Amino acid sequence: ELRQGLAQAGLDDDAEAIIDGEFRVVEEQSAKPQPVGPIITAKLDSATKMLTALAGTAAAAQRLLPMAQQAVEWAGRLFR
């Protein structure tokens, strides 16, 4: 859902590509039989920080931010 929402977030092309790349790594790791938790949490945290920084300039990014924050929280719980 996060990756799908990026297209409507109103981010510039560079920011969208970077955040999409972070989410792509999370998806790839999650699909592995033994995902590397620190990679997942680091990538989600990075994407969330970028969305936070960009939320003021791209109003639609504010809608993605709560989902990204929730994903970081869940990943933290799963991969302690």
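Above is the first protein from milestone M3; the second protein from the same milestone is given next.
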Amino acid sequence: MTRRVLTGSVAGFSMVELLVATGILSLIMVLTLQITSSTNSIWQRARSRIDTFQESRAAFESLTRNLSQAMLNPYWDYVDAQGKLRDPALT
């Protein structure tokens, strides 16, 4: 049976390696948070535009519906195509 004896070196990471790994990890975290923040901002702007478009479309549909239901009141007098005063009692 042979024994291995470590001469002068201990297994593990040095302080420099740990600092470099921590720096790289921090950089990756910062970049990930910036990308997430940017994506969230773009998402919110797009959602705002969609909401505005939907609200304006609903307003136009309501206006169109109201205009399509508008009709001349048969109880009011008006002038017809021949220029004669229309009598509501005749209708």
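Note on the second protein: The longest helix spans residues 15-69.
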